[in-house]
Design goal:
Length: 364
Amino acid sequence: MNSDFTCGFIGLGLIGGSIARAIRQFYPKSRLMAFEINRDALSAAAADGVIDTPLSAIGKELSDCDYIFLCAPVAENNRNLAELKKYLAPSCILTDVGSTKTDIHKHIEAAGLSDRFIGGHPMAGSERCGYINSRALLLQNAYYILTPCEGVPAAAVNAFKELIASLGAIPLVLDFKMHDYVTAAISHLPHVIAASLVNLIKQEDSPEGIMKMIAAGGFKDITRIASSSPAMWQQICLTNGQNISALLTTYINSLTQIQKEIENAQPENLYAFFDEARRYRDSFIEASSGPIKKVFSIRVDITDEPGALAAVATILALQQISIKNIGITHNREQEDGVLRVEFYEKESIEKAAKILSAKGYTIY
């Protein structure tokens, strides 16, 4: 792919910032410009060398762009289309990064931009938001769903697929309606469930907060996504509510069924329920860093004394192994080691385990 292209960003948060960083890393000769209402984020992106041209408004500078990424919240993207249309070059491809697609496709059609819009949804994210948390590796091995309008030339779609693939992501073309149903099932509904579980614990906890204090292991893993942006998930529910509601009804029915089997103490049905879930879950392809991401971590037995945690961190740092997170596990019901070390990449697990084992540590 030609490396001398120009990209514009409307919004530069976690996803927009990560895409911009990835383009800068893989295409250092590219020219990047951005408009972001958070002036501190825009200044930081310019200072980092990620953005060449900070924009104070949506204006004529964007007419130089080969690609423009809409990375603002859904409602803002829709409002920006009329102003943006004034400056689009005939060959410019417009795309977005939203988690729902039906709504933006309707607005694109109303704006008369169906001949140049390729909807985009990088299935990657973090519990943290904002440009400050963006990183080029966020897209690595993540599915990046594309929903091109029918009027977009096939050559343009293929070129954009090549660009996304070159950033380390896995492009997958879907119809936008299919996208919204699929993501409602594997992303949106799980967020609703995670939030409801956390709220349940808050509601049912003792005055002393015992449940909160010992919540760890499996509970923390399955509810991690409840820490995501409430504003974003509010908008997702508002723009994909029909699909989420339909699947939620099916899920509630399945909960009612398992509730009856628990109440009636039906051992065969209960075993089948968990076994079927286990078998299907074990068949998943672990290639995505999407909304429920694979965690790269090890557990290490350490003595309960001052400096023990720091010693492990120092050993790994001296071997130039980057640690994403490290902490003591206080509830070991589903944890094999007292210290949990999380890494950014799968490759770091084997390297860290080998180094720490050589130092006499027991690794799980």
